[in-house]
Design a protein that fits this description.
7 helices; about 230 residues; alpha/beta; single chain; globular; two-stranded parallel ribbon
């Protein structure tokens, strides 16, 4: 697990280990080329191979276009889109030497349709979709046995909701979470989802697991939409 928040990565690794899995936490700034190169070198040195890469880092800054600073726009692009370029470029040589594998890029339904007040987020997540398709074709042409797909969640109960009105940052206090607004956002998400409720992280993890496994060996360059029916109509 690579994360700029090393403490959170350690906690997640601990939960995996407590449930019988194996995990290691490593510092990773996904917007830094040097950090990615160090991260992949660590994987190579400690594990000797790489078969699955999940590009999951993301932020959303919810502001109308005229209220959004260029810095906020660039930050979303750096974390949501630049990170995929850097991570995929760093990982592909090791993944190829390992005999192939699966790269899974986290996008969003906001990468398939526009959402008012989220122009930067929509632009970055739409970029994820077509970056994924282009690299999937490059890998197929290279014959390196690496598949590349994107996942497009709808409304999912994750901490990103607590960051929407805080420039994409996790609030440092309970007051910063603005619980009343969060309840309203959750209600709006449920109302906009045909199944009538938001999803949970496990709903997305199941799709990622499928794309990571050999069960999806003939799937590349496509998008897996997990949204409770949002994109159906």
């Amino acid at each position: 697990i690579g994360d700029i928040d090393k403490d959170a990565a350690v906690q997640t690794s601990g939960a995996i280990i407590a449930n019988g899995g194996k995990s290691r936490a490593v510092f990773l700034d996904v917007a830094s080329e040097e950090s990615w190169e160090q991260f992949i070198a660590t994987v190579d040195q400690q594990m000797g191979a790489l078969h699955v890469l999940v590009n999951n880092a993301g932020i959303c800054i919810s502001k109308p276009l005229l209220d959004m600073s260029f810095a906020s726009w660039r930050r979303q692009m750096a974390v949501n889109l630049d990170s995929l370029f850097l991570g995929t470029k760093a990982a592909l040589p090791l993944m190829t030497r390992s005999g192939g594998g699966s790269i899974i890029n986290m996008s969003s339904v906001a990468g398939l349709r526009g959402v008012a007040g989220m122009s930067g987020y929509c632009a970055s997540k739409a970029g994820v979709r077509l970056f994924t398709k282009a690299v999937a074709l490059e890998c197929a042409q290279a014959g390196n046995r690496v598949r590349v797909n994107s996942v497009h969640p709808g409304a999912i109960e994750t901490p990103i909701w607590l960051k929407l009105g805080n420039d994409g940052l996790m609030p440092t206090s309970d007051a910063g979470c603005n619980v009343d607004d969060m309840d309203a956002i959750r209600a709006a998400g449920a109302a906009a989802t045909p199944m009538g409720h938001a999803g949970v992280p496990a709903d997305i993890a199941s799709g990622v697991l499928f794309l990571a496994s050999d069960e999806s060996r003939f799937i590349t360059g496509t998008e897996l939409v997990i949204d409770g029916g949002v994109m159906a109509g």
